[in-house]
């Protein structure tokens, strides 16, 4: 069902410092910060030849990454995102296999203007999984 690795997301306590690390130390192409209020995060996109990195920082009162950063104050890998051809078919397949789809189960529009869903990390080897419509 899953296709390409769309991105790896890293939660960070200091977005400017993280962007500088990827731009100035690693020499990657790095975007300006982009607020994503519907997702409770601000994102810096790092473009790599074969995939992307999302640097995530909490935005607003109820950010879904706040708990993660409390437990991991220096930051860390927060989720991986795989592309799927049909997000609704993927959701139904995951539910049928007993995996927990987070939120109300309806896809939201993600950072790349495509529908996305999240799957509970406890059902996927301790890794939060995002699915994005290809
Ligand atoms: C930018 C837009 C979009 C895109 O298009 O790319 C995004 O990527 S938005 C990114 C942010 N949005 C989300 O992450 C949405 C989905 N996430 C959630 O709903 C929550 O983060 C969560 C997965 C439900 C966890 O929330 P939390 O408050 O931390 O819940 P718990 O404290 O109940 O944690 C339960 C359990 O799971 C472990 N956990 C939590 N987060 C992770 C993680 N990222 N990776 C691995 N494990 C995680 C947590 O440690 C708890 O474990 P136990 O202590 O053993 O119970
Ligand atoms: Co993401």
Automatic annotation (TrEMBL):
Taxonomy, superkingdom:
Bacteria
Which InterPro entries would you find in this protein's record?
A: Glyas_Bleomycin-R_OHBP_Dase, MeMalonyl-CoA_epimerase, MMCE/EMCE_epimerase, VOC_core
Report the catalytic activity.
(R)-methylmalonyl-CoA = (S)-methylmalonyl-CoA
| GO terms under biological process | L-methylmalonyl-CoA metabolic process
Record key words, sorted: Cobalt, Isomerase, Metal-binding
Q: What is its EC number?
A: 5.1.99.1
Give every VOC domain span: 4-134
What is a single Pfam family found in this protein's UniProt entry? Answer: Glyoxalase_4
From the UniProt record, which GO molecular function terms apply?
metal ion binding; methylmalonyl-CoA epimerase activity
Q: Which PANTHER family match?
A: METHYLMALONYL-COA EPIMERASE, METHYLMALONYL-COA EPIMERASE, MITOCHONDRIAL
The UniProt family comment states: Belongs to the methylmalonyl-CoA epimerase family.
Name of the molecule in the record = methylmalonyl-CoA epimerase
Q: What is the lineage of its organism?
A: Bacteria, Pseudomonadati, Pseudomonadota, Alphaproteobacteria, Rhodospirillales
